[in-house]
Q: What sequence folds into this?
């Protein structure tokens, strides 16, 4: 009987240890992904909320290394080599720590990924450190938030915001040399099978203010090699003609693109062509 009782107690303790009540986490884990230039950037972090507590100098401690969120240390991954505020960083995954004062935040990338928060943090594992200014906006962020903003063709800002504290740094990815290498390999050194590649090369030349005459040659080849004219390709042709000062030809191409856009049910391109025609007068 005593043996049975002990077995029942052991079973009860085992089941009790395994059973848990499912509850929402106080600081839910969040994954942020984005494409910056040619690089895929991912941030995984836990998001604490203020809940009436002081943030600046408290939940965000001053003069101490902070995990940049809650729970495990925040991790940031770059698929390609990037620059953070001009500092080169190799592709890979890093722990993202910060050290705040009221006016300055030190951004820290660490190669050590298995610390719980900042417990056991050692500067010897730092890959990069740099300082950015801290701002204190009037807008209120109840929950700690990391976000991307201010995108360009090769960069974006990473923002860290909580209550009335904000810090950010710039992420840059090399784009131009890679795109130009592709254009050389696929368009200049050979004849592409897909006429859309001509359009891509011409569009990049237009966007980066390169040789408009060469770009027009490519877009003309794209039109000639396609089974039917496409309004977005003809619109690029019109813009290149306008850049070359061939206004009469540009107006004709823009009108053709506008009519094709109407047939295709795309009012955006109708408006773009209307504006281009108006600017050519």
A:
């Amino acid at each position: 009987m005593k043996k049975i009782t002990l077995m029942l107690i052991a079973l009860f303790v085992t089941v009790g240890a395994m059973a848990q009540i499912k509850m929402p986490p106080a600081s839910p884990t969040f994954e942020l992904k984005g494409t910056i230039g040619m690089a895929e950037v991912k941030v995984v972090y836990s998001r604490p909320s203020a809940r009436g507590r002081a943030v600046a100098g408290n939940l965000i401690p001053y003069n101490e290394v902070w995990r940049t969120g809650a729970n495990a240390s925040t991790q940031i991954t770059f698929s390609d080599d990037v620059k953070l505020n001009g500092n080169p960083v190799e592709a890979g995954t890093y722990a993202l720590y910060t050290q705040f004062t009221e006016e300055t935040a030190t951004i820290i990338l660490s190669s050590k990924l298995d610390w719980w928060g900042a417990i056991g943090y050692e500067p010897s594992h730092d890959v990069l450190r740099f300082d950015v200014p801290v701002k204190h906006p009037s807008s209120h962020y109840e929950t700690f938030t990391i976000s991307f903003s201010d995108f360009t063709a090769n960069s974006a800002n990473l923002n860290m915001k909580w209550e009335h504290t904000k810090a950010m740094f710039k992420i840059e990815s090399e784009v131009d040399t890679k795109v130009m290498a592709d254009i050389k390999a696929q368009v200049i050194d050979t004849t592409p099978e897909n006429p859309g590649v001509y359009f891509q090369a011409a569009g990049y030349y237009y966007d980066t203010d390169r040789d408009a005459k060469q770009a027009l040659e490519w877009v003309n080849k794209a039109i000639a090699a396609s089974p039917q004219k496409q309004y977005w390709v003809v619109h690029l042709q019109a813009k290149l003609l306008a850049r070359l000062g061939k206004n009469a030809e540009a107006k004709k191409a823009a009108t053709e693109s506008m009519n094709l856009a109407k047939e295709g049910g795309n009012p955006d391109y109708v408006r773009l062509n209307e504006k281009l025609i108006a600017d050519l007068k």
Q: What stands out?
A: Residues 5-13 have pLDDT under 50 and may be disordered. The longest strand covers residues 126-135. The helical segments are 2-18, 176-188, 195-207, 212-225, 231-243, 247-264, 267-280. Residues 247-264 form the longest helix (18 residues).
